[in-house]
Write a structure and sequence with these properties.
The chain is α+β, with helices and mostly antiparallel strands. The chain is built from 12 helices and 10 strands.
Amino acid sequence: MAIDFTFSPEVDAARLRVREFLHEKVKPAFKAMRENEDASRKDWSALIKRLRSEAKESGNWLPHLPAEVGGMGLGVTALAAVAAEAAKVPYGPYIINGHAPDEGNMHTLHHFATEYQREKYLQPLLDGQVRSCFSMTEPDVAGSDPTLIQTTAVEQGDTWVINGHKWFTSGARGADFAIVIARTDPDATIPQARNSAFIVDCDSPGFEIIRDVETMSGSHNHCEIKYNDVIVPKENLLGERGGGHKLGQVRLGPARLAHCMRWIGEIETALEMLIDRAQSRFSHGSLLSEKQGIQWMMSDSAMELYAAKLMVLHAAYKIENGMEFKQEVSMAKHHVANTLWRVCDRAVQVHGALGYSTDSPLSGMLQQARWARLADGSDEVHQMRIAEILMRTYKEQGEIGPAIGGLPL
């Protein structure tokens, strides 16, 4: 069996094209703007708008969607390479219109939307004209178990009426619409068939943003929302009735891997900063890089990053080839999220006071890294699912091989 981890010429060309655009156009433009002490919010907005326009014109746009809707037409494996490159540059994913939560919502709408929904909601997202949000998590029930959702959607004539309480609806401020998961069939025998998905215009009466929930890393547009008799037309049901759980899993499976792809870029950036600092900082008779404890930090980080890349590539390969991928995505999500946390923490440690200060980007990277172990399934939920599949596979097949990647060794 030949195992080839090189990208095809087409994939590598796409990766290098995005890399060149981000490093030669975006990075210098951001650097110049940061150095301009008179730069206003309006100046920043104009810069980002211009760079997004250039990304679209140069074909570095919508890396996660097919060419027929204006995307780059990349497979999941190629997307992994491009997403990792984008994460190394500030606002990189946003500049190329491949950022969360819009990236996942575009993917969902592309697969489930009606023609009416595609024209009204998907196309403006594809064009980069609007923003969206995904509203599922609730403060009163465990966010890791969507079958417990309390928000209701009740049929009234040719409309649905939604009532409920959500939070951590990321991107809600400034969004034009939300994809909302609500309970439509509370008596369904199968718990996963109790919820449905709806497209809700954010300017609808009764759609009330309570606050931007402040996290340990500040405010990042993770909003708390009340749905007070929000009226939604029947044509805004997304997918089939009772299909909310299925839709969520279709959205979150690839979305989890998309997070991993971006995190790999951040891990690599943190490790490079660690190495650069260690090779230039002199302390207690030698460079930090000459001290065994620091070398162990480097080697542990390198091994964990190597494993993270292999996991993501293999999971992407399975998705791209229509194979079962839940186990591999759960493993990748858990491992990559924890690697991001550990490597950022080591980089902060090697930078000392500078790493802890906001003079370095590492302090912010570490704060942001902590949410990775909670978002899109907490560590423990993924571990539970991994163990369940492992035990079921052993019981049914008498071996564990298919539950650990199905590799031929």
